[in-house]
Amino acid sequence: MGDEDIWNPSNSVARVFLGQAEILSHLTGEETGLGPVIEDECEISIREFSKFIDSLLATYQNSNNKAFRSLLSGFISVALVLVERGGGTLESITPEYSEMWESLREANAKGMPTG
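^ thats the sequence. predicted structure below, dont judge the formating
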């Protein structure tokens, strides 16, 4: 995102998020769009990241496994904040889930400092 900070998590939260993204990329077969951490910063390709999150949304919405969906929903709801702040677009949110995702995104955004 260039010089724009879209999230400034603590180091431990950043490590957990990046680790989850890496694992989930194996599930979807998509690149995460997240670069390596250099001097406590991580570049995001918002186009690639949005594509990754779209694939996770589709995976969640097409699953009926409650435990699986629970594991995915926490990561996705945080990622939705980053997509919005980065100006990305998502195509996979179905009307059935749009209110739920918006509510989770909104709740998380309040606790995700930008700098």
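DSSP finds four helices and two strands in the chain.
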